[in-house]
Amino acid sequence: MAIDSKDFKFQPDSDTPEEISFKMIPSNYRDTIKSLEVVDTNKILGFNTFNNLLMETKSRDNEDRESDFYNVTVNLVVRRMSQFKADQKQMLRSAQKDQRLALF
After folding, report:
1. Pairing of strands 31-43, 70-80
2. For 34-63, what is each residue's pLDDT tens digit?
3. What does the alpha-carbon distance between residue 48 and residue 54 come to, in Å, rounded to a whole number?
4. Has residue 39 been placed in a domain?
5. Which structural domain, as residue segments, surrounds residue 21?
6. Residue 35 lies in a domain
7. Alpha helices (runs of H) in the chain, residue ranges in sequence order
8. CB of 42 closer than 8 Å to CB of 71
9. Which of 4, 63, 84, 103 could form a disulfide with 32 if both were Cys (CB 3.0 to 4.6 A apart)?
10. Has residue 1 been placed in a domain?
11. Residues 16-31: pLDDT tens digits?
12. Rounded-to-integer distance, Cα 99 and Cα 94, Å
């Protein structure tokens, strides 16, 4: 269970009025995202051609041709709790949950 998550948004380019947004969620309960910064965003021009050459396939998928691809660079600062401290917090949460259930 994730302890903390961070939302981030970026403007793909000046021609596109809509923002693209994501939520970063740690997969380990010991981890917490302390900060997240979008460093750079670039639209990848000709990605389909490059990808077809790289994979040595000739995709005729129109869906990919009409899509935009972006390279997004982010910096994360992540805190990882010690196993002992994380286990203590988990036990405390379980005890509080059990107390709430006992009230019903």
Report:
1. antiparallel
2. 888 888 888 877 666 656 655 655 555 555
3. 10
4. yes
5. 6-103
6. yes
7. 47-55, 62-65, 83-103
8. yes
9. 4
10. no
11. 778 888 888 888 888 8
12. 9
Q: Which of 13, 62, 10 is nearest to 37 (CA)?
A: 10
Query: How many folded domains does the chain comprise?
Result: 1
> Is the CB of residue 32 less than 8 Å from the CB of residue 86?
no
Beta bridge partners of 31: 80
DSSP 41-66: EEE-TTHHHHHHHHHT-----HHHHT
Residue 17: alpha-carbon gap to chain centroid: 22
Torsion over CA: 79, 81, 86, 92 (sign): negative
Mean of all residue pLDDT scores within the chain = 77
β partners of residue 10 = 20
More confident residue, 85 or 66: 85
φ, ψ (nearest 5 deg) of residue 15: -80, -15
The set of residues, in sequence order, having a beta carbon less than 8 Å from that of 40 and lying 6+ positions away, is: 71, 72, 73
Contact status, residue 43 vs residue 5, Cβ threshold 8 Å: no
User: Do the domain assignments include residue 12?
Assistant: yes
